[in-house]
Inverse folding.
């Protein structure tokens, strides 16, 4: 009886893991193909018998990429926009989440529920009004407008995730700090921030990733290479008549690499944040 | 030493009125225990005194100075929480020092005070540890230390012993009493445990549904409860309470007994609640209120046995010496008239010769 049970559970385990491998394979296939393509010589990219791994490994595409003078500028622009977006989202988000969790005020519930309404609008519906507004305010082709548009998406999600973390802080801890002589801001800096540091950093990484990869607004609101970020920058690498897939996949690999690294470092906290956010009280 | 005075303090949280016109005087250096069932508003009252919650109405005075508009820092109270609320990212030293640091004490002063308190509470060997490496009892001491090191106007303790096991709880209870005797600082101790209340308090304030029902010494609360709520809440096992009738001549009719009792106001028939403590029940049919019944449950507690006697559908709890009763035995018991507590059945107020509160 127990033998049958054991065998049955082993079989179940095997099926489970086969499923996982399959799903992981399907999800990571495009990324694998892109990375592999970036190391292929041009002749291997367009062929009737494509292979997953390159037959002749080459760094030619990367050399070509580095020879393009705008590319490092795009990366730097992405860094500036993503870093500022993340920093502001965290700074404002921490204060907002603190207030929403620890203050009692009328409308608190409504604000919490309204937080995610920005996600009801597909970004494309906002492109024209934002472009028009930015043009009126002379903000087209500036870091400011890119950071602002990023924040409009990153800030609500940052606050939402932070709410999930802050609700786990025992209310007495915050009270102990105030009885010990902290005002509200000191409470945030001396107690809430240090206690929640890993989680807050994870949310910083998450919002950084959002800003780094943002494409639609970056494409429509930048006009010159001076402020163009990496995603629309890749778009600019496409020629009008000929698309160099080796170059594009190399650029994609370079752009994604820092994100993968960041995500790998903070993966545990980001996943934790996502799951705790799903247990929100509204 | 600080005199605390609350005048008509009201507080609502959301739609619920949690504190209803609270009036309370705590004398300088007194250990006042606030006791009541869960949700009666006792913790909210403590938060209001600390300044962690604003009052909706009423005034709070520390030594005749109004403080209701002051932030917690300015009120200079220290608080011990049920879950200790130690700062998890700080060492024990950091936890003890934090309040002093926030109040601008110099490093040598902080060192000196922390060292003194750590010795006093026997936690000096823990100073470099983080809270997650401490046992429950050690956390409790650190939480106490964090309050002591500040030498505040008032100590506020919010069920500080509830998370400890029974043995540790009684040990630390004794330590708190000794500590208070040495410090002579005004202390307010919130609990739902009546043993803690009776053993610690100079005076007890009993709360129910956002009101203070009675304030008095432990003896007063136990011997002369002002309402049937206090009577039932204080004492373990709880007081026996029965519903009876009082006639115009002041005679009590209960369970086939007719007794002359000293209950005001007389002059008309009324339904009353009659209570008596389990330890006042005497075995054997004697004078006073008499019951006959069958022993259904015996609960040995060591020195004594608590017995439940089924007297025609109503249970009478009594304390008896060990070995004198067996389950199923038919027995007669009686309670002397002077040991009866009589309450108005509608209002719950005591009516046997006591002025209405």
């Amino acid at each position: 009886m127990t033998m049958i049970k054991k065998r049955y559970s082993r079989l179940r385990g095997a099926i489970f893991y086969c499923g996982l491998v399959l799903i992981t394979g399907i999800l990571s296939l495009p990324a694998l193909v892109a990375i592999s393509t970036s190391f292929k010589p041009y002749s291997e990219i367009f062929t009737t018998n494509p292979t997953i791994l390159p037959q002749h490994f080459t760094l030619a595409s990367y050399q070509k990429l580095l020879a393009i003078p705008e590319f490092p500028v795009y990366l730097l622009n992405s860094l500036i926009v993503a870093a500022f977006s993340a920093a502001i989202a965290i700074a404002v988000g921490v204060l907002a989440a603190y207030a929403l969790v620890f203050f009692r005020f009328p409308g608190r519930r409504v604000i919490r529920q309204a937080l995610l309404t920005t996600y009801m609008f597909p970004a494309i519906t906002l492109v024209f009004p934002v472009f028009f507004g930015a043009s009126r305010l002379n903000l087209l082709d500036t870091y400011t407008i890119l950071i602002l548009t990023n924040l409009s998406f990153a800030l609500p999600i940052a606050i939402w995730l932070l709410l999930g973390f802050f609700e786990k802080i025992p209310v007495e801890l915050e009270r102990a700090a105030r009885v010990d002589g902290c005002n509200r801001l000191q409470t945030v800096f001396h107690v809430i921030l240090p206690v929640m540091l890993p989680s807050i950093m994870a949310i910083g990484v998450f919002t950084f990733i959002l800003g780094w990869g943002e494409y639609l607004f970056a494409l429509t609101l930048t006009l010159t290479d001076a402020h163009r970020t990496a995603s629309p920058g890749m778009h600019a690498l496409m020629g009008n008549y000929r698309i160099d897939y080796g170059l594009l996949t190399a650029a994609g690999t370079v752009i994604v690499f820092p994100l993968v690294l960041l995500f790998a470092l903070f993966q545990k906290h980001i996943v934790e944040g996502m799951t705790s956010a799903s247990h929100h009280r509204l | 030493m600080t005199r605390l005075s609350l005048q008509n303090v009201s507080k609502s949280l959301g739609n619920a009125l949690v504190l209803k016109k609270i009036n309370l005087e705590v004398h300088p250096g007194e250990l006042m225990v606030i006791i009541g069932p869960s949700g009666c508003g006792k913790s909210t009252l403590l938060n209001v005194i600390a300044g962690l919650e604003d009052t909706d109405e009423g005034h709070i005075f520390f030594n005749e100075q109004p403080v209701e508009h002051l932030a917690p820092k300015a009120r200079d109270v220290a608080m011990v929480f049920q879950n200790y609320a130690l700062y998890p990212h700080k060492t024990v030293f950091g936890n003890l020092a934090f309040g002093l640091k926030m109040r601008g004490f110099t490093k040598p002063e902080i060192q000196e005070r922390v060292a003194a308190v750590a010795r006093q509470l026997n936690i000096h060997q823990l100073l470099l540890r983080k809270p997650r490496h401490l046992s429950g009892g050690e956390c409790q001491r650190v939480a106490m230390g964090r309050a002591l090191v500040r030498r505040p106007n008032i100590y506020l303790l919010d069920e500080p012993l509830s998370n400890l096991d029974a043995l540790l709880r009684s040990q630390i209870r004794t330590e708190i009493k000794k500590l208070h005797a040495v410090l002579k600082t005004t202390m307010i101790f919130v609990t739902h445990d009546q043993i803690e209340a009776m053993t610690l308090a100079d005076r007890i304030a009993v709360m129910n549904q956002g009101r203070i029902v009675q304030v008095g010494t432990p003896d007063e609360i136990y011997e002369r409860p002002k309402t049937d709520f206090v009577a039932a809440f204080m004492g373990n096992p709880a007081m026996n309470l029965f519903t009876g009738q009082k006639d115009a001549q002041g005679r009590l009719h209960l369970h086939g007994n007719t007794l002359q009792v000293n209950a005001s106001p007389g002059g008309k028939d009324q339904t009353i609640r009659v209570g008596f403590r389990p330890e006042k029940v005497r075995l054997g049919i004697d004078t006073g209120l008499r019951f006959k019944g069958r022993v259904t449950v015996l609960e040995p507690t060591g020195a004594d046995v608590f017995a439940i006697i089924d007297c025609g559908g109503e249970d009478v709890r009594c304390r008896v010496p060990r070995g004198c009763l067996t389950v199923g035995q038919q027995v007669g018991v009686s309670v002397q008239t002077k040991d009866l507590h009589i309450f108005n059945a509608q209002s719950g107020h005591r009516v046997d010769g006591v002025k209405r509160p």
The CA atoms of residues 6 and 24 of chain B lie 5 Å apart. The mean pLDDT of chain B is 90. The first helix of chain B runs from residue 42 to 50.
